[in-house]
Design a protein that fits this description.
Keywords: Heme, Iron, Metal-binding, Monooxygenase, Oxidoreductase
Number of domains: 1
Cofactor: heme
Family: Belongs to the cytochrome P450 family.
Pfam families: p450
Number of strands: 11
Oligomer: single chain
Strand order of the largest sheet: 1-2-3-9-6-4
Radius of gyration: 21 Å
Largest sheet: 6 strands, mixed
CATH topology: Cytochrome p450
Order of helices and strands: EHEEHEHHHEHHHHHHHHEEEEHHEE
CATH class: Mainly Alpha
Distance between the termini: 46 Å
Strand content: 5-15%
Protein name: Cytochrome P450
Low-confidence stretches: none
CATH architecture: Orthogonal Bundle
CATH superfamily: Cytochrome P450
Mean pLDDT: 91
Shape: globular
Length: about 400
């Protein structure tokens, strides 16, 4: 039986096992870091089906679902924070509608000038310090942290604490149970105090609007949901995007022809961002789902109680869904990749992530056209032990 996540030999290349599974074993039994077993799906249509089908729900210990991490707490997918956010039915739709107002195309357009100005300042700092530089530490991490902190009305000077709290929530094998419990208690205390402060003195930020706002029926979010929403946005709003910025730039610099094509045609920035999201071979764990009733997937009958892991990155390399799936085509369109999931649980902040990625790429192309990797591609090191994938650092020069 395969161990999951499946290790890859290179930081930017997919494990060879993905193609074999898609072709010959689309529903594979795997062993998770916890030692529990799950079913892994890797084909595009199967992953899209599982993510979109309401019969597949979030796994919880209460259901007897497979544990993801070796630690006792559920981590990102099954903890007090995630359980406080409604996942199904009308409550879930209400929560998404209230938050969705903050992630519209109009909102993103309004945020873009601030993102561009911050990216410019961060690149100025990198230039002042000189090269080689770590693009992830200098730009990839601080930019999305600044954006999400601004949205939530929290000081980005606390970003190192946010990063640690996020990592413990995203744990697979890196942290002990004691470290996780302490960090999550601190995180909960911090965000609870922040919500209380915002309730006393509302500002112009997202949390203040959620506290004071109501839905179409006059309903308000509970205190627990407000706190959990703040935590969830802080984690999702910087960790995944920070990693994706580093991976995107590394992918584009790994083959100089890609970077040169963008320098010659800046109109490709949007499609290049989408292709980087599709082509990403190091996105992390994927998305687990729990099956409350018997169902057939890819000719395999899955019994009630099965935990299914959707590997969106493997699905995004499916030749039946994408012509030349193993080639990075910066002009690919349409590009219906699954990097942000599918269905009612698709990533709420995907417009924000896309805007940040586009801004970073536009500013880098303008300010640092001679940018290149400062180490061979094979020397790039992957983030280990967390639910999210990424590169530990992205050494660059110009």
């Amino acid at each position: 039986m395969l161990s999951y996540p499946i290790p890859g030999e290179a930081a930017l290349e997919p494990p060879a096992e993905w193609a074999r599974l898609r072709q010959g074993c689309p529903v594979a039994r795997v062993t998770l870091p916890s030692g529990d077993e799950a079913s892994l799906v890797t084909r595009y249509e199967d992953v899209k089906l599982v993510l979109s089908d309401p019969r597949f729900t979030r796994p919880t210990h209460a259901d007897g679902a497979a544990r993801i991490s070796a630690t006792e707490s559920g981590g990102l997918f099954d903890n007090e924070m995630s359980m406080s956010i409604p996942q199904t039915g009308g409550e879930h739709r209400r929560w998404r509608r209230m938050l969705g107002k903050w992630f519209t195309a109009k909102r993103m357009a309004a945020l873009r000038p601030g993102m561009e100005a911050m990216a410019e300042r961060l690149i100025d700092d990198m230039l002042e310090r000189g090269h080689p530089a770590d693009l992830k530490a200098g730009l990839g991490f601080p930019l999305p942290v600044w954006v999400i902190c601004d949205l939530l009305g929290v000081p980005d000077s606390d970003r190192d604490r946010f990063a640690y709290w996020s990592d413990t929530l995203l744990n697979l094998t890196r942290y002990t149970q004691e470290e996780i419990d302490e960090a999550q208690a601190d995180f909960l205390k911090y965000m609870t105090a922040h919500v209380i402060a915002k309730r006393a003195e509302p500002g112009e930020d997202l949390l203040s609007e959620l506290i004071t706002g109501t839905d179409a029926d006059g309903g308000r979010l509970s205190e627990a949901t407000l706190v959990a929403t703040g935590q969830g946005l802080l984690v999702a709003g910087h960790e995944t995007t920070a990693n994706m910025i580093g991976k995107m730039v590394a992918m584009l610099l790994a083959d100089r022809r890609r970077w040169d094509r963008l320098l010659a045609d800046r109109s490709l920035v949007r499609s290049a961002v989408e292709e980087a999201l599709r082509f990403d071979a190091n996105p992390g764990f994927g998305m687990p789902r729990y099956l409350g009733e018997e169902i057939e997937v890819a000719g395999t009958l899955l019994p009630r109680g099965t935990t299914v892991v959707c590997n969106m990155a493997a699905a995004n390399r499916d030749e039946s869904a994408f012509d030349g799936a193993d080639e990075m085509d910066l002009g690919r369109t349409p590009n219906p990749h699954l990097a942000f999931g599918a269905g009612v649980h698709s990533c709420l902040g995907q417009a924000l992530a896309r805007t940040e990625l586009q801004v970073v790429l536009e500013v880098l192309l303008r300010r640092l056209p001679s940018l290149e990797l400062a180490v061979p591609v094979e020397d790039l090191r992957k983030v280990e032990g967390l639910v999210v994938g990424g590169l530990r650092e992205v050494p660059v020069r110009w």
